[in-house]
Write a structure and sequence with these properties.
alpha/beta, five-stranded mixed beta sheet, seven-stranded mixed beta sheet, metal-binding, globular, Rossmann fold, monosaccharide binding
Length: 748
């Protein structure tokens, strides 16, 4: 690990080490980054399976990282080559930022020459040089700034956003008490990603990022906006500034300059908070642990499959698939962004940062301040929450309401789901009614599981009474099932021939038509934090196995992903059927594990994974089989998985889905608007919006019906089942790698 540290590096070190041992390689850990490579000696140690036990939950990097001057010189690299050859190491996995990875690529290109030099100096023999003639390199990008082009997310970015959002949530409460303005400075010398996403996820009033400096005369505009927000009744202002913020002429904008400006012009009580290294610290988020584990496995495969002709590659995620990218292409584009910024080609800089960056920036600008609609539209939309509460629902409602208002629609919100729709609990909302909703957990509108078929007549009556032409339903499986029932009742009731859209929001992630549902990231993090604590207590008592029950209905997503994030020994789910033989194998596995230094076990069980093998049953089985070797405890996580403030991912995802759903509905309404009325009865007028691989897709509910298992409330095909291979492998189960799907080489 090299360069600045990032949360999740340990999960990557663990995955690379274990996967390496798994495929039969010798694995060495190099301590203190490139410095340890140059110094050699005790800095290079062979690792075993237990070397990386119990580190997945730690921030930073347990093998240390240092910025190394020596490695930037040829003499330093010569010593490094000598140390590697001494141990017979010809495959290097580097986890670090663009500097560290560029250094690795230079090292690789010089390798042949360095070995020749060592032969001439008599430090190694010709035979040794021949045996080690090729150096393979693979990179994993660890950087909290997310400043590396070509990769969707770098290791540590999500965790840094977690730290920033925790601080913003804490500051919001004190700012409200005192009616203060806060200027928050976040990291990002050359990249505004952290500032941008935290601005979007907190609904900040003003945002400074290096890629898009404010127009000249921004001081007047900013103060005018802040004043406006206050006069509308807001008690606070939040301004987020990236440490590398500049104006159009390239002059830095400091947080103190912004503070003084607000004080002088508006006289508001203003404070500056510089977040600094807090952002690099703390425990890695679930996303970073899973990301690092996936990338670590893929890195080992990339090294195994390397040939003299393959370029050094970086392992990355594209959507939820592992991919490989040529290292130097990524470095080149990353340099191009910097060059564009230096030459003040700011529009281009934003585009080079990639689609999601540009998307975030445009959505932030749309939602931050009310722009009067060009003209009043003839349409009315209603928004409701259905099913169990999920974090992020409020973020989706907020952005949907605001975009609807921008488009000139009349926007209604409905309390208590379909039941509220039938009882007429419907009210019109304005832009400021949803202020401050972004960071709130649960459902502010109130939600119920009632399905429309129990009260169809009354629903139709209210749709007619309020003249609703668009229905946006934010919720779980019931939301999807409910809209399907409304579509199937169109033959009976013409009033239901309107545009409908479902935003999947459930901690179970069991809605067809999307890879991720809103709220599942928050739930996985909540379950993971609990399991971390449980694991810690087991480490103290020794020889103890915890059986932890998670929610999710029949869907095993929550227990599988939590299992990977906490390094569980097993996760029982309905989709991956298990028999008494599997249970026996698991118990024996734990018995063996207790003979090592790791004297604790953690087994996750999804609540409905098996009709007869209940949590109680597992407890009894493990207790009697483990008698005298380990004891057992049960923990049912329960409703803590539904609670809590939404994670940065869910705030951002909810915001984006709300925007995209309403824009889609507006477009559809225009298409089916004839002679002053809306009539929509085609399949594609009622869709589920979701993320599939990398693309936001709209799937008609009538099409999704064919791929749904209604009895178990599940999609028939689920992408995350291939994660279970990784779960078992990292828990030291011998399984065949034939099912492993290697990432493809792609171009930036």
């Amino acid at each position: 690990t090299s360069g600045g540290d990032a949360q999740g590096m340990n999960a990557a070190v663990r995955a690379v080490t274990r996967m390496g041992i798994y495929v039969g390689a010798k694995v060495f850990l190099i301590y203190e980054g490139y410095e340890g490579l140059v110094e050699g000696g005790d800095n290079i140690k062979q690792a075993n399976w237990l070397s990386v036990s119990n580190i997945i939950q730690l921030g930073g990097t347990v093998i240390g990282s240092a910025r190394c001057k020596a490695f930037t010189t040829r003499a330093g690299r010569l010593r490094a080559a000598c140390n590697l050859v001494e141990h017979g190491i010809t495959n290097l996995c580097v986890i670090g930022g663009d500097g560290s990875l560029t250094g690795a690529d230079i090292f690789r290109s010089e390798w042949g020459g360095l070995l020749e030099e060592l032969v001439q100096d008599g430090q190694i023999s010709k035979e040794v040089a021949q045996e080690n003639c090729r150096l393979n390199i693979v990179g994993l990008v660890g950087s909290i700034d997310n400043d590396f082009c070509g990769t969707d997310m770098t290791i540590g970015t999500d965790s840094a956003l977690h730290r920033i959002m925790e601080v913003i949530d804490a500051i919001t409460t004190t700012a409200q008490s005192h009616q203060r303005t806060f200027v928050l400075e976040v990291m990002g010398r050359h990249c505004g990603y952290l500032a941008l996403v935290s601005g979007l996820a907190s609904g900040a009033d003003w945002l400074f990022i290096p890629e898009s400096p404010p127009e000249d005369g921004w001081e007047d505009l900013m103060c005018e906006r802040l004043g406006e927000t206050r006069s509308r009744g807001s008690r606070l202002n939040i301004i987020i500034i990236a440490e590398g913020a500049i104006d159009r002429s390239g002059k830095p904008i400091s947080s103190n300059y912004v503070k003084d400006l607000v004080v002088q012009r508006l006289g508001f009580d203003t404070r500056v908070t510089v977040l600094g290294h807090v952002q690099r610290g703390g425990t890695p988020s679930a996303f970073d642990r899973v990301l690092s584990s996936k990338m670590g496995m893929e890195a080992v495969m990339a090294l195994l499959e390397a040939t003299p002709d393959t370029p050094a590659c970086v392992v990355s995620l594209s959507g939820n698939q592992s991919v490989r990218l040529p290292l130097m292409e990524c470095v080149q584009v990353t340099k191009d962004v910097q060059k564009a910024m230096d030459e003040k080609r700011f529009e281009e800089a934003i585009q080079l940062r990639g689609r999601s960056f540009e998307n975030n920036w445009n959505i932030y600008k749309l939602l931050a301040h009310q722009k009067p609609a060009q003209e009043k539209s003839p349409f009315s939309l209603a928004i409701l929450n259905v099913g169990a509460p999920a974090a992020g629902m409020n973020a989706a409602v907020r952005s949907a309401v605001r975009i609807g208002i921008c488009q000139g629609h009349t926007v209604y919100v409905v309390s208590d789901g379909f039941e509220g729709l039938s009882k007429g609990q419907i009210r019109e909302v304005g832009w400021h009614d949803v202020a401050g909703w972004l960071g709130r957990g649960g459902s502010m509108l109130g939600t119920k599981r009632t399905l429309p078929k129990t009260c169809m007549e009354k629903i139709v009556e209210n749709v007619r009474k309020f003249n609703i032409q668009g229905l946006l339903v934010i919720g779980g499986f019931e939301a999807y099932e409910g809209v399907l029932q409304l579509v199937e009742a169109r033959g009976q009731y013409e009033e239901l021939c309107i545009i409908m859209c479902v935003i999947p929001a459930t901690i179970s992630n069991n809605v067809p038509g999307t890879d991720f549902s809103l709220g599942s990231d928050t739930a996985v993090n909540a379950a993971m934090e609990s399991c971390d604590r449980i694991k810690q207590s087991a480490s103290g008592t020794k020889r103890r196995v915890f059986i932890v029950e998670t929610m999710g209905g029949y869907c095993g997503y929550l227990s599988t992903v939590t299992g990977i994030a906490v390094g569980a020994d097993a996760a029982y789910v309905y989709e991956d059927p298990f028999t008494i033989h599997d249970l026996k194998a698991n118990v024996e596995h734990l018995t063996d594990k207790m003979k090592t230094d790791i004297q604790r076990g953690l087994v996750l069980r999804n609540e409905k994974c098996h009709e007869h093998y209940t949590t109680e049953f597992l407890y009894n089985l493990y207790s009697s089989e483990g008698k005298g070797i380990f004891d057992c405890r049960i923990n049912v996580l329960g409703h803590l998985q539904q609670g809590g403030a939404p994670t940065p991912f869910d705030r951002n995802y909810g915001t984006k889905l709300g925007v995209k759903a309403v824009l889609w509905m507006s477009e559809k309404l225009q298409e089916v608007h004839r002679q002053g009325r809306v009539f929509a009865n085609s399949g594609d007028s009622a869709c589920v919006i979701g993320l599939r691989k990398k693309v936001v897709a709209f799937s008609p509910v009538t099409e999704l019906k064919k791929v749904t298992d209604f009895e178990h409330r599940l999609p028939q095909e689920q992408w995350w089942l291939n994660l279970r291979l990784m779960l078992k492998m990292l828990a030291n189960y011998q399984i065949s790698l034939t099912e492993y799907i290697s990432g493809k080489m792609e171009h930036v």
